[in-house]
Amino acid sequence: MTRVVTLEQIKRAIDPARVIAALEDGFVAYSEGRAVVPPVGHLDFDDPPGDCHIKCGFISGDEHFVVKVATGFYRNPERGLSSSNGLMLVFSRKTGNPDAVLLDQGWLTDLRTAAAGAIAAKYLAPRGLEKIGIVGTGIQARLQLEWLGHVSECREAMVWGRNPEKAHLYRKDMASIGFTVALAPSIADLCDACNLIVTTTPARTPLIHSAEIRPGTHITAVGADGGGKQELEAELFRIADLRVVDSLAQCSKYGASSYALRAKLIDEEEFVELGRLIRCPELRRRNDRQITIADLTGVAVQDIRIARLVTESLA
Amino acid sequence: MTRVVTLEQIKRAIDPARVIAALEDGFVAYSEGRAVVPPVGHLDFDDPPGDCHIKCGFISGDEHFVVKVATGFYRNPERGLSSSNGLMLVFSRKTGNPDAVLLDQGWLTDLRTAAAGAIAAKYLAPRGLEKIGIVGTGIQARLQLEWLGHVSECREAMVWGRNPEKAHLYRKDMASIGFTVALAPSIADLCDACNLIVTTTPARTPLIHSAEIRPGTHITAVGADGGGKQELEAELFRIADLRVVDSLAQCSKYGASSYALRAKLIDEEEFVELGRLIRCPELRRRNDRQITIADLTGVAVQDIRIARLVTESLA
């Protein structure tokens, strides 16, 4: 028997507090070496350009393993379709039976990325958040702010995006879920007003510069999911007091951190994995003057944990 | 929109002649280098022992790409479950949408393996089949004989299996689909009576020996799907007049052929891929005295083609 779960059912099954707890558990398992995550499979397409990534894995002791297929076709918006799509499969580790097919259309990937941002903020944001700065106006810009609402009381935000129309729409949409969003004339203005900043863009030249960052600021970067993307100036990693990554293996290859590592501004030992930070309070922010960075590239344990959570919630 | 297709619907959609044509087309595409098939992903499990293989790929010019997840849990029969399970996913190559989820429980893999055996026999069996010899009594032993019925008029068969009870059951079951099956006292007797032989076992020491094979016999081996399995004596490849493989890359690693190659009884150039044989009549059997072998390890193009066929048949 295989249970087929629609996106509507998945959305109804999501409880933010449980998602955050499940992902924290996943990050800890990953950093403790209890996750088995083989290399990602991928297919590339021309005409139209697109790709497919296949991630799979399990966490030691789990009853299930998970296979995620994610597609990205970047001309889909021209047809009125989302560029990302895909599904997750949950198999029994005891019998190999496909217990559940989660037809999430890529939504769980967006969600677990946003939830990881919330977890980073939970452990790294300074006390007394003044304003949350969001760079970008897309789906992840929306979800990141929404999910920060699950770990913080702050409802004041500021947004910067290249396209003013989209920034206006962002402000309106975020108002509908309780956030007051100002439009930043520039990223420098945003950095000046905000002590929690999340960057969510596919930028290939740095948007955030070390000279503009106030003491006490936490910055989370979620845009770098592959080669060539860079939202944060490498120098930021040098001046930061705390540098957190979801996966040292991935971030050192293609995360925002990778540029600072290659420029030899910092060493690998100066990074802390999010899973270790969750486990050890002494590794976290020490005061409200420190500058902290979280570089999140997305790890398969997030998929493994969120797929399990959805399946269990529906059982 | 994703269409979810049950095993019952899949079974109803199968038309043997169309399956054979679709797979032939796949083998040709593979041998002509028109298939894109990345490395297989896999997960291994302890307690209970099991594995998961993830194959994906597409054929140049197709509108779809396919991801297949296959699981094998070898203690499942103790619980009354099949050891193999899995599903296939058919995605649009234009948008990345998961167009279909084929909940085939591994059945399409069994089917495409049997259909490949029929294709090998179609091009390699001698004229005037006297008796079909089947070594093994499992699911593939059944399906191979059934599918040979789609390319040959011969309904006389002989079976050999280690377990006499299972051989009796095999005879009974095959009678119900029109085959008269004799029980072979030994494999030597089977080789003596049959001029088409199919081996379907997970044997790790050779069952078929060159000294026992009559001139004019064709042998298809489908049991070697991974390291350590060997149904045919390596010497058989030396004395054969024609050696066919589904994939030279795979067969030279772990097929029945690999033992003959490693023992340097033959060179790689002495093999012909099935796709080339289908394309070029001059590469096929030349007379009814030749000994021919087909070593089939299973290739992703079979999955790609059968998944497309099922999806199109249901459209």
What do these coordinates show?
- Two copies of one chain form a homodimer.
- With 315 residues, chain A is of the alpha/beta class.
- Chain A has eleven helices and 15 strands.
- In chain A, the strands form two sheets. The first copy, chain A, has an eight-stranded parallel beta sheet, sandwiched between helices. In chain A, strands 1, 2, 3, 4, 5, 6 and 7 form a seven-stranded mixed beta sheet that branches.
- In chain A, helix 2 (16-31) packs across helix 3, helix 3 packs across helix 4 (139-148) and helix 3 packs across helix 11.
- Chains A and B meet through strand 3, strand 4, strand 5 and strand 6 of A and strand 3, strand 4, strand 5 and strand 6 of B.
Helicity of chain A, in percent?
A: 25-40%
Mean pLDDT of chain A: 96
Q: Which chains make the largest contact?
A: A-B, 39 and 39 residues
Strand content of chain A: 15-25%
Assembly annotation: homodimer
Order of helices and strands of chain A: EHHEEEEEEHEHEHEHEEHEHHEHEH
> Any idea what the radius of gyration of chain A is?
19 Å
User: How can the largest sheet of chain A be summarized?
Assistant: 8 strands, parallel
Structural class category of chain A: alpha/beta
The shape of chain A, in one word, is: globular
Unreliable segments of 5+ consecutive residues of chain A: none
Termini separation of chain A comes to 13 Å
Number of beta-strand segments of chain A = 15
Number of helices of chain A: 11
